[in-house]
Amino acid sequence: MIGLVVGRFQPLHLGHLRMLEAAAGKCDLLIIGIGSANKAKEAENPFTDKERQRMIRLSLKTRTRFEFLEIPDFGNDDKWVDWIRHHARFDAVLTNSLNEKKIFEKAGYKVMELPFFDRGRYSATEVRRRIITGEGFADLLPEGTLKVMEEVGGRERIMKLKGGGV
């Protein structure tokens, strides 16, 4: 089965990683949609699509083949799904988002639900908030994300962009 999972991964945290591992376990090929691929270096989207892909490549340990699909924002669910339909072929969408479930089911796709992994603890918004407030955050992130953040000055970038919110 070819599965599609979509996320912003701003940054990739351990909850995302567990979700990707769970999705990979259900697929022969996993397409990882990098959401908001056309946005970067903003308060809510501090990392580029390539940086997020590298975080995933360095962190996701699976035998399942995976590839990336850079998905731009459209501000319109129908246009968003239509764009995905024309750029990827897949058998099912794997998600833990009720909104994504609704959008893809409406478009006629099979949707498989994934669990959240300690959602109260693992959240990219929480990671960015902790960075801004000077709290510890490294325990929320896989080594691959920490490596990429170090390489690109991710902590400093988030601090610089904080004026726009977390």
Provide structural commentary.
With 166 residues, the protein is of the alpha/beta class. It has a single domain, classed as Rossmann fold (3-Layer(aba) Sandwich). The chain has seven helices and five strands, in the order E-H-E-H-E-H-E-H-E-H-H-H. It has helices spanning 14-24, 49-59, 77-87, 98-106, 124-133, 143-152, 154-161; strands at residues 2-7, 29-34, 65-70, 92-95, 111-113. It is globular, with a radius of gyration of 15 Å. It starts with a strand and ends in a 5-residue tail after the last helix.
Tag the structure with descriptive keywords.
166 residues; alpha/beta; Rossmann fold; 5-stranded parallel sheet; 7 helices; 5 strands
Short structural summary:
The chain is of the alpha/beta class and 166 residues long. 42% of the residues lie in helices and 15% in strands.
Here the CATH topology equals Rossmann fold
Class based on secondary structure composition and strand pairing: alpha/beta
CATH superfamily: HUPs
Task: State the total count of DSSP E strands.
Answer: 5
Total separate domains? 1
Q: Segments where pLDDT lies below 50 for 5+ residues?
A: none
Instruction: Give the overall pLDDT as a whole number.
Output: 95
- State the distance separating the first and last CA atoms: 36 Å
- Helix-residue proportion: 40-55%
The helix-strand sequence is: EHEHEHEHEHHH
Q: Give the overall silhouette.
A: globular
Q: Strand arrangement, largest sheet?
A: 3-2-1-4-5
Beta-strand residue percentage:
15-25%
Write the layout of secondary structure elements.
Blueprint lengths: L1 E6 L6 H11 L4 E6 L14 H11 L5 E6 L6 H11 L4 E4 L2 H9 L4 E3 L10 H10 L9 H10 L1 H8 L5
Parallel strand pairs: 1-2, 1-4, 2-3, 4-5
Helix pairs in contact: 2-6
